[in-house]
Amino acid sequence: MSVIEDNIREIRENIAEAAVKSGRNPSEIQLMAVTKTVDDDRILRAIEAGVDIMGENYIQEAKRKIEKMNVDVKWHMIGHLQSNKAKYAVRLFDMVHSVDRMGLAVEIDKRSAVAGRVTDILVEVNVSGEESKNGISLDEAPDLIRQISLLDNLSVRGLMTMPPWFDDPEDARPYFVTLRELRDRIVAEGIKDVEMRELSMGMSGDYRIAVEEGATIVRIGTAIFGARV
Ligand SMILES: *Cc1c(COP(=O)(O)O)cnc(C)c1O
């Protein structure tokens, strides 16, 4: 049994425990392995252990891995995306978690139309308002979502966030709660063509808390693969 397999089994147990604790069904939560800087062999270990969503931050790195590895998994873009890279994002990824401005949405929509597909996206929200963070502000998010909903070749599936880093993961809870409440407000609006199923939140340090607060996709790197080099 490899370390990676062990780690994944433990994470799945923790996810299930957090789900049950908060009255959720563990099957509602998908585990993403965040594979930035992780080499192909170790990614294969995670796939063998049953993980079927890989998260990448950089187009170049993702392109190389996706084309070379040719594995039957889903690849999600979780890093900051420049509009001029939208073409590659559409071609490479099953979902883009990091849409945080209209210019980028328009570009992904245009490239999706050319490719004859509809691209699933999440809207990234900067809940903390920290300047160093990507994401649309809480205040502006509903309007961005209304505008994106008018684009034919994008499908809004939910929201993504990254809270500030805390020593005590319990401190991240209010940020997860705020994202869930934003999701609920948008659902209540009933915007046509907007589905708010996904809450992409929770990383190695705080995924248990995120699951307790409604996460449907947790994005985990270090706790699966060890510290990044
Ligand atoms: C790197 C990264 C993660 C994973 O972080 P870990 O702490 O290693 O689990 C999750 N989400 C995003 C957006 C990332 O960039």
Order of helices and strands: HEHEHEHEHEEHEHEHEH
Overall strand count = 9
The CATH homologous superfamily: Alanine racemase
The tally of structural domains comes to 1
What would the keywords be for this entry?
229 residues; alpha/beta; TIM Barrel; nine-stranded parallel β-sheet; 9 helices; binds pyridoxal-5'-phosphate
Helices, strands, pairings?
Layout: H1 3-21, E1 30-34, H2 40-48, E2 53-56, H3 59-69, E3 74-77, H4 86-92, E4 95-99, H5 102-115, E5 119-126, E6 136-137, H6 141-148, E7 154-161, H7 173-189, E8 194-200, H8 207-212, E9 217-220, H9 222-225
Pyridoxal-5'-phosphate binds next to strand 9 and helix 9.
Structural description of this entry:
- The radius of gyration is 17 Å and the shape is globular.
- Strands 1, 2, 3, 4, 5, 6, 7, 8 and 9 form a 9-stranded parallel beta sheet that branches.
- The chain has about 230 residues and is of the alpha/beta class.
- The protein has 9 helices and 9 strands.
- The protein has one domain (about 5-225): Alanine racemase (TIM Barrel), CATH 3.20.20.10.
- The two termini are about 25 Å apart.
- Helices cover about 40% and strands about 20% of the residues.
- Pyridoxal-5'-phosphate binds near residues 36, 162 and 221.
